[in-house]
Write a structure and sequence with these properties.
- This protein has about 300 residues and is mainly α.
- It has a single domain, classed as Farnesyl Diphosphate Synthase.
- The chain has 15 helices and two strands.
- A two-stranded antiparallel sheet has the order 1-2.
- α3 runs antiparallel to α4.
- The structure holds geranylgeranyl diphosphate (GRG).
- Geranylgeranyl diphosphate binds next to α4, α8, α9 and α10.
- The site of geranylgeranyl diphosphate has 21 residues, from α4, α8, α9 and α10.
Length: about 300
């Protein structure tokens, strides 16, 4: 494996996605200004950008240009930001702090935050559907993949499971299922959308692999993504116990305050760390037949459980 330049790669991806998001979002000085300002506040300037970075890394692993996953990366982050705005609302988690700043409904007001979250969702699908860098078949497949990942069968369904679990004792399988939906679905979609770009080349270009090979590659990448998606949430659970509010940018200890089942609460802190490590090892094993192009995916897997925010 080549030397780990994850830091510079992440900085490059973050700068790129910031530009794409900035251009995709409506200008703050156009009407309705307050809605547009709330949308921009919720999306721009902070956030780790893990889902876009994963899409760019998966593009690198499959030999796809970053231009062809810019729309996917932006759409993923718009849906993610929308979910955070809604999650923080008084009717859900009722949080004051997000990404180290007041939550959207605190900085604006509840109705504006609710509507800004809605507008971010529709914008995500508009960005994908109108992307000039992908042929119509790729756009449609990406729209469908993201809708499935975000909706009732994915992240939103996971959020409902999460709400239903408050104050209840969950076993590990139920908690895993919740995390796979709430957090894992979008992370899997990030990798899958890059695989769609690889399998749906622009008009006039031939696919770079035969269909059976492409299917095997997509399956391996999906296993990788499913493992790191779960590991990401286990690490999130651990940061809620071990992290510092000032560093993680949201209120630490919130899970315990809401009596939420988490990996550390069910397994203990040490076993939760071991579970996260085992998931990352399984993710890395799935990439064993991939070449150096997959190194960024490998580095991200390690970063997921080493991160402190
Ligand atoms: C938008 C379709 C749609 C539905 C909204 C409220 C809701 C339904 C879903 C909430 C899902 C949710 C809050 C998932 C949490 C996932 C998670 C681990 C968030 C933290 O992600 P990071 O660490 O955050 O990537 P940053 O701030 O770095 O982007």
């Amino acid at each position: 494996m080549s030397e780990d330049p994850l830091g510079p790669l992440m900085a490059q991806c973050r700068a790129r996605i910031e530009t794409v998001l900035d251009a995709s979002l409506p200008a703050a000085d156009t009407s309705p200004e307050r809605l547009h300002a709330a949308m921009r506040y919720a999306v721009l300037g902070s956030g780790k950008r893990v889902r876009p970075i994963l899409a760019y890394a998966a593009a690198r692993a499959t030999g796809v240009s970053w231009e062809r996953v810019d729309a996917a990366a932006a759409a993923l982050e718009l849906i993610h930001a929308s979910s955070l705005v809604h999650d923080d609302l008084p009717s859900l988690d009722d949080d004051d702090l997000r990404r180290g700043r007041p939550t959207c409904h605190k900085a604006f007001d509840e109705a504006t935050a609710l509507l800004a979250g809605d507008a971010l969702q529709t914008l995500a699908f508009e960005v994908l559907a109108t992307d000039p860098h992908n042929p119509p078949a790729a756009r449609v497949a990406m729209v469908a993949r993201l809708a499935q990942a975000a909706g009732a069968g994915g992240m939103l369904g996971g959020q409902v499971l999460d709400l239903a679990s408050e104050g209840r004792q969950l076993d590990l399988d139920a908690l895993k299922n919740l995390h796979q939906h709430k957090t894992g679905a979008l992370i899997r979609a990030a990798v899958a959308m890059a695989a769609i770009a690889a399998d749906t080349p622009p008009h006039g270009q031939a696919a770079d692999q035969d269909p059976a090979q492409a299917q095997a590659r997509a399956a391996a990448m999906d296993h990788y993504a499913a493992c790191i998606g779960l590991a990401f949430q286990v690490q999130d659970d651990l940061l809620d116990v071990e992290g510092d509010t000032a560093v993680i940018g949201k209120t630490s200890g919130a899970d315990a305050a809401h009596h939420k089942a988490t990996y550390p609460s069910l397994l203990g802190v040490e076993a939760a760390h071991a579970a996260a490590r085992a998931l990352v090892d399984s993710a890395l094993a799935a990439l064993r037949d991939f070449g150096a192009g997959a190194d960024p995916l490998r580095w991200i897997a390690d970063y997921i459980i080493a991160r402190d925010r």
